[in-house]
Design brief:
The chain has 296 residues and is α/β, with parallel strands linked by helices. It is 43% helix and 23% strand. α1 crosses α3. InterPro entries: LysR_HTH_N, LysR_subst-bd, WH-like_DNA-bd_sf, WH_DNA-bd_sf.
Length: 296
């Protein structure tokens, strides 16, 4: 009688989901040689090849695809049963979450605290990055869940809008600018072009008659806030991240153009089958950035 271990099936399914042995190794927190060894053991047990070489990569054989199809629902049932029996307290492994600065400064801290309270054995790895980079990592399976700004439409991603923030222009009161007038001769700071906020900032400048102005770029909102507070120019930032500074008078809002709104979403891979990640996604969809109800 042939005997298979659960880790053989888990490994096979993650290779199928992510596309490569290397990606599966990273997801399972092991090495690529270990993944290869597991698949050799599995092929030895079932008596037929699961993978075949296709150029420089390995592809599932016809019988390998059939095995994956048959095992997917079985593995999903096993995972759900194990997790439900422990109410997620027994969940372990590495969970990788990507977020932008705005989410990190608003809804993310409480979300992470709740996750750790329910999953004390799991290791959370949080990376703060720009939306474009996070999306690449999600599609490459090096992130499990991401919070990102801007519109997003791709068949490979499931998203849920969790709110919006208002983007404003700020400066230090030491510059003596008229908040209602178009600023003249002031250095302009906006996020890098890899951020969806960059295009929103350029549109705002065009509307305010500053479309041809020289702009300075940063990949960090807090750095731009610090520059503005020191009198180093005006910056396009989320109002929610500078609300306290505005209230204290450390910064002023420049109202020469209207405020812009930016949507925020939480996302996972469309093919994600891990019940733990899907449960995290459902929890994240209940978060709210910016406060208030989600626009229809």
């Amino acid at each position: 009688m042939r005997r298979l271990s659960l880790y053989h099936l888990e490994t096979l399914l993650w290779i199928s989901r992510l596309g490569t042995f290397a990606a599966a190794a990273e997801r399972l927190n092991t090495t690529q040689p270990a993944i290869s060894a597991r698949m050799r053991e599995l092929e030895s047990q079932i008596g037929y090849p699961i993978f075949q070489r296709a150029g420089r990569t390995m592809a599932l054989t016809v019988r390998g695809r059939e095995l994956v199809r048959d095992c997917e629902p079985l593995w999903g049932t096993i995972e759900r049963t194990l997790l439900q029996s422990s109410s997620f307290e027994g969940a372990s492994g590495i969970i990788r979450i990507g977020a932008g600065e705005i989410a990190a400064a608003t809804c993310l801290p409480a979300f992470l605290a709740d996750l750790k309270a329910e999953m004390p054995r799991a290791t959370l790895e949080v990376e703060i990055d720009l939306s474009q980079a996070m999306l690449r990592k999600l599609l490459g399976a090096t992130h499990d869940l991401i919070f990102l700004s801007g519109p997003l439409s791709t068949p490979n991603i499931h998203t849920q809008r969790i709110g919006e923030v208002e983007m404003i222009w700020i400066a230090s009161p030491v510059l003596g600018l008229d908040p209602e007038a178009q600023p003249k001769g002031v250095p302009i700071w906006v996020l890098h072009s890899h951020s969806p906020i960059h295009a929103v900032a350029l549109a705002s400048l065009d509307e305010g008659g500053l479309g041809g102005a020289v702009i300075n770029l940063s990949n960090n909102v807090r750095a731009m806030v610090d520059v503005a507070m020191s009198g180093g120019g005006m910056a396009f930032v989320p109002e929610i991240m500078v609300r306290d500074h505005l209230t204290r008078g450390a910064l002023v809002e420049l109202r020469f153009v209207r405020r812009r709104t930016l949507p925020f979403q939480v996302a996972i891979r469309a093919q994600e089958r891990d019940p733990l990640i899907r449960d995290m996604y459902e929890r994240a969809t209940m978060l709210r950035i910016g406060g208030g109800a989600i626009p229809a």
